[in-house]
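Ticket #4471: structure output looks truncated?

Reporter: J.K.
Steps to reproduce: submitted the chain below (381 residues) through the standard prediction queue, then opened the result file.
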Amino acid sequence: MRYIYSLIFLGIASATQAQVVPAPTLPDSAAAPAQPRREKPSFIPLPIVFSQPETGLGYGLAVLPVWRFGQDTAVRKSNARLVAWRTQKNQSLLQLTHNVFTLGEAFLLTGEASYYYKFPINYYGFGPDTRLADKSIIEYKVFIFNERVLKRVAPNVFVGGQYRLTNLRDVQLNEGIDQDPNRSRLFDRPAREYTQDTRISGIGPSFLYDGRDNVLSTYRGNYLELGALFNGRALGSDFRFSRFVVDARHFQPLGEGTRTILATQIIGQFQSGDTPFRELANLGGDKTLRGYYEGRFRDRQLLAVQAELRRHLFWRFNGVVFGGLGQVGNTVGALVQRAPKASAGAGLRFAFNRQDRLNIRLDYGRGAGSSGVYFSIGEAF
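Returned output as attached by the reporter:
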């Protein structure tokens, strides 16, 4: 399950971060060459508070360094996030994520290491027609390691490989499991998916075109990610299945010199083989179709499209409106056999780090029969 978090006490502290003191010049007519300012990432833990439908109110600590390798300003900045939090629903997480451009952008390394401890979620079953009445609460512990190593082969073009490990333990069915006919839809799955600890291990190729001007909040550029993961017993996986992912994004200012940005995204996840319930594609959450609970709809195949209009309002505040369509299904053909799920909403952004374009995000999204408020850091895409 993807998660979100936000910072609320950093606006004043970071207000001076975007200020740059000009280098002094010599008294004669020959000006001294400007000395590049060496940036020092901060590793000071900061308090965080966040909220989303999947977690309720949460709190914790975060370390959020942003830096650049070398002094070539054409190299995009790297960033990492180390967070530890707990929520009012008794969910706990320790996570490290990173997006690192090496010197000259010769390599790009992205990935995560996460440990979800006793993590209860709402489970509605699988397929595009699950009902709110199908909800049951399940709980588990899971460790996730995911790493992608890519080499630049052309400007903005990276190719390489990825490895993903998921270790799921101690699945428990807490609520909604004994009331016939409303017993948990988890019992519709093979028993070994919820009665045994499971390991998923997969490796595969990855292609990335990343022409965004900034990876944290993009004004212009294109992004295309293509990837495949092959999970099998030779890699220690308890389930054998394949996953194919496509993520295409376009960012465009609406006019010269404007701060109105149109952002669009098409995302697809397609799987074949013996896919366990937690590895199914999820619709909903803070990233895809805000307004639906993450995992409200899940199945082997997913296709979604969404758009967001971002507009500067005043001072450090920006406003957004967004909407999206998406669907899940057992087969690719099933994705177009039913009307897609729709969501829409609006939100505010507060730029607490204008130099690196790092925003606090507050969104309200609404789907069919559900809604959600998302208070987090960074853009949805």
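Triage note (M.O.): checked the attachment and the full token line is present. The chain has one domain: 39-377.
Status: closed, working as intended.
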